[in-house]
Design goal:
By secondary structure, this protein is α+β, with helices and mostly antiparallel strands. It contains 7 helices and 21 strands. It folds into 3 domains: 63 residues, 2-Layer Sandwich (Uridine Diphospho-n-acetylenolpyruvylglucosamine Reductase, domain 2); 110 residues, Uridine Diphospho-n-acetylenolpyruvylglucosamine Reductase, domain 3 (2-Layer Sandwich), CATH 3.30.465.10; 81 residues, UDP-N-acetylenolpyruvoylglucosamine reductase, C-terminal domain (Uridine Diphospho-n-acetylenolpyruvylglucosamine Reductase, domain 1, Alpha-Beta Complex), CATH 3.90.78. The strands form 7 sheets. A 5-stranded antiparallel β-sheet has the order 6-7-15-11-12, covered by helices on one side. A 4-stranded mixed β-sheet has the order 1-2-5-3, with no helix packed on it. Its EC number is 1.3.1.98.
Length: 284
């Protein structure tokens, strides 16, 4: 493992906001997790930081990265084991090369494979758990275990893995043949046309309430384009908050509060964040 002390976290979040971590540990072998979790406290596992808002100032947190655990291994026809640190779109590229199908609707989502599995990430009616066969985890008892899909509780943007704060080491997928390249091209074009990908952001900020869409509610509430400091509710996609370059954690937090209060007042709907908010030494 590699340990970096007093490490700036600003570039580890897609929002480009973050303070200085007590330490940042890069895991090079899954067996190192036991030593890390027995030695340190206030541990936060960070993937690509594509949905993680990190507080500023001095952070009494040990960040752990699995980015070097990024291997892909074919175990049989359509059965593929992928380590958690792999960039998700490298998995899509692998599927293209090998004519595997099942996750095309998720193409273009930024993040690591482990990050998407952790929260059951998805898009356009598909979820990553659609193709999951089993997941290798490091549990609260510091044991490495492999769980079959049917033994894991998961729902919309939520998993038992997240609730119990297990560490995902790898996931085994079961794919069909017939990669749909045109679908991937169309979805990526759609993302570029509808999402503010030219500015730092954390993707969809709020989960969709049952039977509705957060973006629609935010738009109808007249909040598109609302700005606090360097942070703004995107006019292009109102469920995105963008950083114009000088946004602070406080700016973004104020926008989150503003949106939730306004939607609650107008529609009596309590929006829930889809992003992870890390304030000093705790997840909100």
């Amino acid at each position: 493992m590699r340990i970096l002390e007093n490490h700036s976290m600003k570039n580890h979040s897609n929002m480009k906001v973050g303070g200085v971590a007590k330490r940042f540990i890069v895991v090079e072998n899954k067996e190192e997790l036991k030593d890390i979790f027995e030695k340190y406290r206030n541990i936060f596992l960070i993937g690509n930081g594509t949905n993680t808002l990190i507080d500023e100032g001095d952070l009494d947190i040990t960040f752990v990265s699995l980015k070097e655990l990024n291997k892909i291994e074919e175990l049989g026809e359509g059965i593929v084991r992928v380590e958690a640190g792999l960039d998700f779109n490298k998995l899509i590229a692998f599927m293209n090369r090998n004519n595997y199908s099942g996750l095309e609707n998720l193409a273009g989502i930024p993040g690591s494979v482990g990050g998407l599995v952790y929260m059951n990430g998805g898009a356009y009616g598909s979820e990553i758990f659609d193709c999951i066969k089993e997941v290798e985890i490091f549990d609260e008892n510091h044991q490495i275990r492999t769980l079959k899909k049917e033994d894991i509780k998961f729902s919309y943007r939520s998993t038992e893995i997240q609730d119990k704060k297990w560490v995902i080491i790898s996931a085994t997928f079961e794919f069909k043949r017939g990669f749909d390249l045109q679908k991937v091209i169309d979805i990526q074009a759609l993302r570029e046309s509808k999402q503010p990908l030219d500015k730092p952001n954390l993707g969809s900020t709020f989960k969709n309430p049952e039977g509705d869409f957060s973006a629609r509610l935010i738009s109808e509430a007249g909040l598109k384009g609302t700005r606090v400091g360097g942070a703004e509710i995107s006019s292009k996609h109102p469920n995105f908050i963008v950083n114009h370059g000088d946004a602070t954690f406080e700016d973004i937090s104020k926008i989150l509060t503003l949106v939730k209060e306004k939607i609650k007042k107008l529609y009596n709907i309590q929006l829930e964040e889809e992003i992870i908010i890390l304030k000093n030494n705790r997840v909100l």
